[in-house]
Amino acid sequence: MSPQRSTTNNDLLPLPDLPPELVDHVIDHLRGDAAALTACSLAHSSMRIRAQFHLFRSICVTPARWPEYEILVKKIRVASRIRQAPNDEDEIVPMFPAVTKLDLKMVDQTVLSVPLLRQVCDLNTVESIRMHICVVPTMAFVAEFICSFPRLKKLAVSDLFARDTFVMKLAANKAIDGPVPTTFRPLIETLRFPSGCTLGESMHAHLNTLEIVVVCREDAATLSALLQDLGPRLRHLYLGVEQMNEDASLSDPLTLSYNSGLRTLGFWCLKLHGDEGRPRPSLAWVPRLLTGLGSPALEHIYFRLRAGGASTADLDTLDWAAVSDILCERRFDGLRRVTIEVLRGQDMVDVLWPYIEERMAGLHARSIVRHTHVPSGI
Questions:
Q1: Cα separation, 31 vs 8, whole angstroms
Q2: 339 DSSP β-pair partners
Q3: 1-42 residue pLDDT tens
Q4: What angle do CA 323, 321, 249 make, to 5 degrees?
Q5: Which residues fall within 8 angstroms of residue 92, CB to CB, at 6 or more apart?
C-alpha cells in the first residue's frame, strides 16, 4: 500500500500521493473560477500555493481598497517581526507574491509609491500594468515608476494627468520619459495609450504592439514619428482616429510605409454616424493608410465599426469597395483573416452585412471575412 501524505491542522483529509505536477495541472484548469480555486486553497496544503497563484495573479488598487491593503501590510509586518530572530534583518514579504497584473484606478503618487507597492506585491513578477485616471507629478515620474518593474511587458494608460500642469499652470508635457538606469531597460512589448501621450525613445526598445487613438493633428504628427521610429519592429497596431470637427485631414501625417513587419492591423473607432451636433466623420484615411502599407507578413486586418445612431444613409461612410480592391492586391496574398466587428446598431446589422459583402466580393470569395456584432459598446 502506497504511503499517504501526512496531514496538518489545516488539512481536513489526507491526500493520496500524487505527482505534484498532476495536482498543479488539475488546478490550472480551474483558473478563472474563483470559487473552485478558493475551495482548493482551503482543502489541502499541497493545493494552496498553486490555487493562490491563480487567485492573486491580478489585483486592483483603488482609493477604497488601498486603506485595507495598508492595514494588512501592518499586520503582516508585525507577524513577520515576531517570527524573526533578534539578529535577523527585516525582509520585505509582499502580501501577494504571485501578482502578474496590477490595475491602478483613480490613484495619485501616494499610492504609486514604489516602497509601498513593494509590500503589496513582488515588483519582479509584475508583467502588466493598467493606469486609469491617475494623477502624477510629472511624466518623468511615470517613467521612473515603470522602471521599477523589470519584467513589465504590457502597459495600458488612460486618462493620465500631470499635477504640475494644473497647479503651476505649466505647459503640458505628455512624453513619458526620464532617466533610465543603465543596468535596466524597460521590456515593454505591448502599449495602450491615450491620444497625445508619447513614450520616450529609451522606453520602447522592445515595443511590438501598439494601441492608440488620435484626436488632433498634433497627435497624428507625434504618432507618425513614433511609427517611423518603430519601423519593422512593430508587429501589431490598433489605430483609431477621432474626427471632432469638419477637418478630415488631421490624419494626413500618418503613414504605415515604415512598418513592413506588421502582422495585425486594427482600425478602431470607425464611426459611421457623427455624434449629435457634429458632421458625419470621414473614413477616407482608412484606404489611404492601406494603400501605403507594404507588409508581406500581414495576416489579420480588423475593422471595428461604431454603428450607434447610424442609418442606411451612413452605409457609405467607409468606401468598402476601395478597401476590398486594395486588400485583393498580390502584396496581401498572405492575408488570412478580415474581421469586421459592429458595435451597437442592432437595426443596421441586417442591412450592413449584405452591403459590405456585395462590395467586398473578392475577399468574401476567399472565405477570409468574419462578421461579428456586439450589441453594447466597448
A1: 26
A2: 302, 370
A3: 444 444 444 445 556 677 888 888 888 888 778 888 888 888
A4: 55
A5: 118, 119
Sheet holding 128-136, edge to edge: 58-61, 101-105, 128-136, 154-162, 190-193, 209-214, 236-241, 264-271, 300-306, 337-343, 369-374
pLDDT tens-digit series, residues 244-270: 655 667 788 889 999 999 999 999 889
| CA neighbor of 67 nearest in space, from 125, 134, 114, 120 | 120
Task: Give, for 121, the enclosing helix (H) or strand (E).
Answer: none
The greatest distance separating any two alpha carbons of the chain, rounded to the nearest whole angstrom, comes to: 81
Rounded distance between C-alpha atoms, residue 125 and residue 97, angstroms: 8
In Å, what is the CA distance from 190 to each residue of 174, 258, 324?
19, 19, 29
Output the average pLDDT for the chain: 80
Segments in the chain forming alpha helices (H):
20-28, 34-43, 45-55, 66-83, 114-120, 139-146, 163-167, 217-230, 285-291, 320-327, 349-359, 361-365
pTM for the model stands at 0.77
Chain centroid to Cα 111, Å, comes to 21
Average pLDDT score over residue span 190-218: 76
Q: What is the DSSP letter of 260?
A: T
**DSSP string of 312-361?**
GGGGGGS-HHHHHHHHTSGGGTT--EEEEEEES-GGGHHHHHHHHHHHTH
User: H or E stretch including 216?
Assistant: none
